[in-house]
Amino acid sequence: MGKRKRETANKIKEARKSESFAKLRNIPSSPRKMRLVADMVRGVEVFKALGLLHFSTKHAATDVEKLLKSAISNWEQKNGRKAESGELYIKTIHVDCAPMLKRLRPAPQGRGYRIRKRSNHVTIYLDTINND
Length: 132
Description:
Blueprint: H1 3-15, E1 20-27, H2 31-41, H3 46-54, H4 60-79, E2 88-97, E3 101-106, E4 112-117, E5 120-128
Antiparallel strand pairs: 1-5, 2-5, 3-4
Helix pairs in contact: 3-4
């Protein structure tokens, strides 16, 4: 690796030192339902987001809550200290489509209706507030 590439790689590494991420893959719910929950917590401080998710009536909120706890744990592992209230926020959260399971349901007159069982992937990035 050349000197310029190494310096650039070190700069990127230092920039990513304060942010951490977690992924949850193949969640058996539709991406549309998951995006409703993701929009609810985007850009919010993490402990406030945990409260929002815990008391939300949406089923997808439990999966996002689990993912957020994992991302907080990843940040704590990376930085070697506990996260404090007001320190971390959800920088980005995005929901992508996962492969669909295609099934057939019996329909009248010998036909079959297609059922598409959707699933999704969720990725969440955390960052410290004082970096803004």
